[in-house]
C-alpha cells in the first residue's frame, strides 16, 4: 500500500479543508493516508480515526516572518516525507502548495489550484505547474484558464465530493435558536466574514427584497464578527430581519428551514455550500464569479453557450435562468457598506430573489432540479476518479509542464460525463 500525504494549512473552516478531510476518509482503504497541518488551532472538522500530524508552525504577520515560516515548514515537511517514505504528496491551497513544491520528492508532487484567487498570481501559477507532477483543479474554469493563459494542458479536473445523504440526515437535527415563524420567507447563505464572500451585496439586495416581501428574512451562517455587515443592516433599518448565527458545526438544519439559498461571492473555486443547499432541495441564486457557480447551475449546453459568447470566461451581464438555478452577474469586489449606495448589481440580486419568492411553482421546480443536480457529485465517483489519477501519477506519469501534448483531463466533471444531470 502506497503512502499518501495530504497537506493543508489548518482544519478550522473552509471548502478545501473539508475536501481534504473527505479525501483522507475516502482513500483510507487505498493508501496509508496522513494529513499534515501547520497548526491545530480551532480544528472544526471531525478527524477521528485519521492520522493527523501537526508540525506546529502557525502563520505569522510580516514579510520576513512569512518567508522564515515557509523555510521552516519546507525543512520540516522535507524531513517528514523522507521519514515516512511518502510516495505522493497532494497539497490543498497556495500556502500548502509552496511548501509541497519546495520540499520536493522523493515521491510525486501534486498541487491543487482550487479557487479563482489562486489564479491571480501568474508567477505563482507557473511555479506550481513547473514543479508539480500534476495539477488538480476542482473547476473547469480554472483548467480552461491554465490551458488558454499558460499553455498548460495537464490539469486534472476533479469536482468536490458531496455526500447528499449525509447532508440531508444532518439537516434533520432540531434548531433551538430559530428566530422566525412559519410564514417567514427565509433567504440563507453560508459564508465566513470575508470580503471575497461579498455579503454586503446580499444585505443590500435583501433590503430591496423585504420592501416588497415584508415577510422575508435573512440568515447568515459562518465564522466572524460581521461588524460592518451588522452596522449596514442597522443603517438600512433591517437589523431585526437579519440573523447572524455565528459558527455552527452543523449548519444544515438552518439551511433546511430556509426558503431559498443565495451565494453572492466574487471569488470561489467549487462552492461546496451551494451544492449542499441544492442537496437540501433549496432553489439557488448565485453570482457568476470567476469560477464555480456557472458550472453547477447551468447545464453542459448552457455552459458551452456562455463560453461561445465569451471565450475569455467573463461574467454574464444580466441574470440567466439556468437549468439548476439562477445566475446573476458577478459582484463588485470592493467592500461597500454605505447604506445610501445601492448598485445595479444589488438591484439585480434582490430582484431575482424577490422574483423566485413570489413564484411558488418556480421555487419548487428549482428545488427539484437542484436536488437532482447535487446527486451528480457523489463521494464514490470522486474516490474512483481521484484514485485513478493518483495511481497514474505514482506509476510514473511524466512531469507536467506548460505546452504538454496530453489532453486536458476532466475526469470527475459531470458535464463531461455524458450524463448532464436532470433538467427542471
CATH architecture of the largest domain: 3-Layer(aba) Sandwich
Helix content: 25-40%
Q: How would you describe the shape? A: globular
User: Domains counted in the coordinates: how many?
Assistant: 2
Strand content: 5-15%
- Biggest sheet overview: 7 strands, parallel
Mean pLDDT: 91
The total count of helices amounts to 15
Q: What is the top-level CATH class of the largest domain?
A: Alpha Beta
Q: What is the name of the CATH topology of the largest domain?
A: Rossmann fold
Cα-based radius of gyration, to the nearest Å: 21 Å
Q: What's the CATH H-level homologous superfamily of the largest domain? A: Glycogen Phosphorylase B
Strand adjacency order, main sheet: 3-2-1-4-5-6-7
Structural class: alpha/beta
Distance between the termini: 44 Å
